[in-house]
Write a structure and sequence with these properties.
The chain has 405 residues and is α+β, with helices and mostly antiparallel strands. The protein folds into three domains: 154 residues, no CATH class; 47 residues; 148 residues, 2-Layer Sandwich (Heat Shock Protein 90). The strands form three sheets. A five-stranded mixed sheet has the order 6-8-9-11-10. A four-stranded antiparallel sheet has the order 2-1-4-3. A two-stranded antiparallel ribbon has the order 5-7. β3 and β4 form a beta hairpin. α7 packs across α8. 19% of the residues are buried. About 5% of the residues have low confidence.
């Protein structure tokens, strides 16, 4: 398992853990909401029953036959009835949170409780609240004397409503905090990686500079004393030495804004392709197609050659050293486009973006830095775009480079 896979597994594990916490929070809060809703329903039913007993004329008529009692008994009974009414009134007064509206059989509003005190005289507001209550709960029916009916409508209290939506608000805040923290951490990590990368690149360029200078001096001495038959070997070694100089120059340019100059893209790619072709197996077929012989664009040749070299080496590895490599250069309204197509094993669609992530590699001994470096050179230094344009398993893969005209 490489570094990229370890990081991905950690991210997946943390994401699953966060989702589990979120689901538990929602489940627990919903259970509390259900319990509170049941308690509020009981309170409304008690309020309804108290209202029924207070206003019901039948309640008083039940004691009409007791008028014949003596004065002491009647006073005691009247006192008892007063205490009952006080008790029922107290039950009514205990509802200070649940909004309720009492209507008659025709839907006329008789009374209400726990609504906005500043809008209680607004009929439009009361009708709107009544509609909300009808949508939320079934009414509680109060049957009075002589088959008269009233209806008590109610809706969830403000506390219950807030508790119902609180976990979503809480999870949103947590998600926002995690997102901002992730962006900040990623930016900090990227900045740190950039500093390390720039430091290593420049140190590598510095370390290579001394032996290359020494080798160039030795090459001049060899040229002076070389026989005619050895000159061909000398020129080939000289080419590789110059290539080392180019590589050193590439490393030295990392971390600083490179100078971009006007070049013919067709010629630049042709030179890079020819150099690689001479140092690649004869089983790999190179081909260059262009819609025009000259297409001008701003380039830094040492860095752009590095891009072509990395893409070609990856393509040759994907083809196991045997296949064809096609360069197709064309243009649209705003960009010069280069498609590099190989006949290798292909890239799964799910990995089109992942292949550019530092650390991702399918090679046992790979570091996963080649394509991430390619992306940085094209997008950061040349302000272009690079992506996997198309891929078919075991058939072909096309990388597309887009450079602004």
């Amino acid at each position: 398992m490489n570094e990229y896979e370890r990081k991905r597994n950690w991210k997946i594990s943390l994401f699953i853990f966060a989702v589990a916490i979120g689901f538990f929070s929602l489940w627990y809060t919903n259970s509390l909401v259900k319990k509170l809703a049941a308690e509020e329903e009981k309170k409304v039913e008690q309020w309804a029953e108290a209202t029924k007993l207070i206003v019901s004329t039948g309640f008083m008529e039940d004691f009409s036959s007791l008028r014949e009692l003596d004065s002491n008994q009647y006073i005691s009974l009247d006192k008892l009835m007063g205490e009952v009414n006080n008790f029922l009134s107290n039950i009514q007064q205990q509802n200070v949170t649940i909004p309720v509206i009492l209507t008659d059989e025709k839907g006329n509003i008789n009374s209400y409780r726990n609504l906005d005190p500043e809008r209680e005289n607004d009929s439009t507001y009361l009708k709107k609240q009544l509609k909300i209550m009808k949508d939320e709960h079934e009414p509680i029916v109060i049957e009075f004397f002589r088959n008269q009916k009233n209806y008590i409508w109610y809706k969830n209290s403000l506390l219950l409503s807030q508790l119902k939506y609180y976990p979503y608000f809480q999870l949103s805040i947590i998600a926002l905090f995690i997102f901002v923290s992730y962006i900040a951490f990623s930016a900090s990590r990227r900045s740190e990686q950039d500093r390390v990368w720039v430091g290593m690149s420049r140190e590598t360029a510095h370390q290579l500079g001394t032996p290359i200078s020494s080798m160039m001096a030795w090459m001049d001495m060899l040229k002076e004393n070389a026989r005619e038959d050895d000159l061909s070997i000398y020129y080939e070694i000289d080419k590789d030495l110059k290539r080392l100089q180019v590589i050193t120059e590439r490393f030295s340019k990392i971390g600083s804004a490179p100078a971009l100059e006007d070049h013919n893209l067709v010629t630049v790619i042709e030179h890079a392709m020819n150099y690689l072709q001479k140092r690649t197996s004869s089983k790999v077929y190179f081909e260059l197609k262009s819609t025009a012989p000259e297409m001008r664009v701003l380039l830094n040749i040492p860095l752009f050659d590095w891009v072509i070299e990395n893409l070609c080496k990856n393509a040759i590895d994907a083809m196991n050293g045997e296949g064809s490599l096609l360069f197709h250069i064309f243009e649209d309204k705003n960009y010069l486009i280069t498609d590099i197509t190989d006949t290798g094993k292909g890239i799964p669609k799910s990995k089109f973006k992942t292949v550019f992530v530092p650390g991702y590699t399918t090679k046992k001994r790979g570091w996963g830095l080649g394509l991430s470096l390619v992306k940085r050179i094209i997008e950061d230094y040349h302000k272009g775009h690079i992506f996997v344009q198309h891929s078919e398993p075991n058939k072909r893969t096309t990388f597309r480079i887009m450079l602004k005209k």
